[in-house]
Amino acid sequence: MSEECCSPTKNSLKANCPVNGVKGKRVQTITLKSLLKPSALETLNSESNYFFCDSIDCPVVYFNEQSQTFTTEEIKVPVFPKNQGEEVPVCYCFNWTPTRILEEIKQTNQSTAESSIRTHIQAGRCGCEVNNPQGSCCLANVRQQVINYQQSVM
Ligand SMILES: [Zn+2]
């Protein structure tokens, strides 16, 4: 059974963010169509390849090879990991926020986030390609967040 929810983008095409020069991962156009604010969507070039810049300190969320960029202000939702607010989802589909993850760990010393998300993935309920600004499976992010919190609580 597949570990990841959303079919990872087939090609491993990469490009460098025009602002900070860091390599970004390809995202499907459907992710931008779903998450760009209307005024930004009006400038989308559906023929070009878009990439996600995951650097925390870079305002660019998406860019293409023609150096067009969309910044955090042009996205409908706060973007993890650029925004690490307590209510910014790590898992957008099922709303696992840092607060929710941490509260559970404080109360029970464990986290059901990953197993719960996996159950939904297996039931075909996951929609990271339209919900998660990264356009890909959130499990790695969730797992990392859980580890960080377990270490901070212990
Ligand atoms: Zn960048």
Write the layout of secondary structure elements.
Layout: E1 14-16, E2 23-27, H1 29-35, H2 38-41, E3 50-52, E4 60-64, E5 69-71, H3 98-108, H4 113-122, H5 128-131, H6 139-153
Antiparallel strand pairs: 1-2, 2-3, 3-4, 4-5
Helix pairs in contact: 3-6, 4-6
Bound molecules: zinc ion.
What key phrases describe this protein's structure?
alpha+beta, N-terminal domain of TfIIb, 6 helices, binds zinc ion
Please provide a brief summary of the model.
This protein is an alpha+beta fold and 154 residues long.
Can you put this structure into words, describing what you see?
This protein folds into 2 domains: 14-74, N-terminal domain of TfIIb; 98-153, no CATH class. The chain has 154 residues and is an alpha+beta fold. The protein is 33% helix and 12% strand. The mean pLDDT is 92. It has helices at 29-35, 38-41, 98-108, 113-122, 128-131, 139-153; strands spanning 14-16, 23-27, 50-52, 60-64, 69-71. A 5-stranded antiparallel beta sheet has the order 1-2-3-4-5. The relative contact order is 0.18. Zinc ion is lined by residues 17, 19-20, 22, 53, 55, 58, 60. Zinc ion (ZN) binds next to loops.
